[in-house]
């Protein structure tokens, strides 16, 4: 799979996670649990995939930083 496509898919998952955390923080409403049940196997899989996506996206900082330094030279 193309790295750019993977980055976009994982970024979308990270955004979904961020929106969910925002809803929890502001309104005490957990959208993922509401849609898929409170800590069902599916909910746990979704949380795990979003968490792994976030960890993978840490590598985006390095790639973006190296792309930015190439532009300056």
Task: Describe what this molecule looks like in 3D.
With 73 residues, the protein is an all-alpha fold. 86% of the residues lie in helices and 0% in strands. The protein contains three helices and no strands. Helix 1 (3-27) packs across helix 3. The two termini are 30 Å apart.
The ordered string of helix (H) and strand (E) elements is HHH
From the alpha carbons, calculate the radius of gyration and give it in angstroms. Answer: 15 Å
Mean pLDDT: 89
Beta-strand residue fraction: under 5%
**How many runs of DSSP E, i.e. beta strands?**
0
Q: Tell me the distance between the termini.
A: 30 Å
- Helix proportion: over 70%
Tally of alpha and pi helices: 3
What kind of oligomer do you see?
Answer: single chain
Strand count, sense and closure of the main sheet?
none
Structural class designation: mainly alpha
Global geometry: elongated
As residue ranges, the low-confidence spans are: none
Quick rundown:
By secondary structure, the protein is mainly α. The protein is built from 3 helices and no strands.
List the helices and strands and how they pair.
Elements: H1 3-27, H2 31-36, H3 41-72
Helix pairs in contact: 1-3
Short key terms for the protein model shown above:
about 70 residues; mainly alpha; 3 helices; elongated
